[in-house]
Amino acid sequence: MSKEIKSIGVLTSGGDAPGMNAAIRAVVRAANYYNLRVFGIYEGYQGLIENRILELNARSVKNILNRGGTVLKSSRSEEFKTKEGRKKAYQHLVDRGIDALVLIGGNGTFTGGMYFSQEFDIPVMGLPGTIDNDLAGTDFTIGYDTACNVVIDCVDKIRDTAESHNRLFFVEVMGRDSGFIALRTGLASGALDVVLPEEDQPMEDLYQELEKGANNNKMNRIIIVSEGNKLGDTWTVAQKVRERYPQWDSKITILGHLQRGGSPSCLDRVLASQLGVAAVEALREGRQGEMIGMVNHKLLFTPFDKAIESKSKIDMELNRILKILST
Prior knowledge:
Order of helices and strands: EHEHEHEHEHEHEHEHEHEEHH
Shape: elongated
CATH architecture of the largest domain: 3-Layer(aba) Sandwich
Structural class: alpha/beta
Distance between the termini: 61 Å
Number of domains: 2
Strand order of the largest sheet: 3-2-1-4-5-10-11
CATH class of the largest domain: Alpha Beta
Number of strands: 11
Mean pLDDT: 93
Number of helices: 11
Low-confidence stretches: none
Helix content: 40-55%
Strand content: 15-25%
C-alpha cells in the first residue's frame, strides 16, 4: 500500500527549456489545491545535495507562466551520480518532511530519479522538459514548440537578406542526437534541404538538392543543419559546398542557445500546465517512477526505464514532403 503524500518537492534539471516555469507553477498550485505542502529545490540535484530548498505557495509562482528558463535554476551534478551524494540528498528530504518528488527534465534527470527512487523508496514522477523532443512517451516535450518557433522566426529574418543578395545560408540548429528541430523548422520555413543525425546522407544528395534549386531559379537557398549530423559540423559542410560551387555566396549562421530562450508558446504553456497537475494527482493516487507525457491529446504514463532506453522516432515523412515542396 502506497504511503500518503503530504508534501512534494519539485526541481528542474539538465538543459533549461521554455515552459519549465509553467510546469513549476502548475505543480505548486495543484499541490496547494489538494492541501499539500510543496518545496522548490533550487539548482537541480546539486541543490538537493546542498539543501537549497524553499517552501513555495501559490503567490511564490505568480507571473512566471510567461517566463522562459526556470526560476528554480538548473545544473548538472556529478555528485548525485554517486550513492553517497544521493544519500545526502535523501537526508535533506527526510529533514524537510518531503514525501515525493516531481522532476522536470530529460533523460539524465530521469536516470537520476530512477536510481534515487529505487534506493530510498521515494515516489518520483517526471515531466519531459527538453527542447530536443527526443523522449519516447510523448508527442511533444515541454519547450520543443517554443524552440521551433524561435528558429522559424530567425530563419524568416535570414531569408530577407538571402533574397536581397542571392545568398546560400547554412543555419545550424540544436539537435546533437536528434533532428526534430531541424526537420520541423526546415519544413515550416521553406528550407531547400535539411541535414539530420538520423540520416546517413552523402554530400552528393545535398549537392543535388542545391543544383535542383539553382536550376529552378531559386534565388535564396537555406539549408537547416542539425548540429549532430553525420556529414560534420556546419563549417565543414559549408566548406565542402564552397569548394564545389565557388560561384555561390554562402554564409553560416549558428543559432546556438538562442533556441532555449524566450517566452513559451501557447502550446508549451498548456502542455506544461496539464502535465504539472497530472504529476501531483498521480502521486496522490500512488503512482511513481514514471514520466508523464501527452500522446494523441491524452495523458500517457511511461516507466522511467522505458522512457530512458527508448528514443522518440523522427517522422521522415516530413522530410519527403519538404523535398517535394522545396523544388
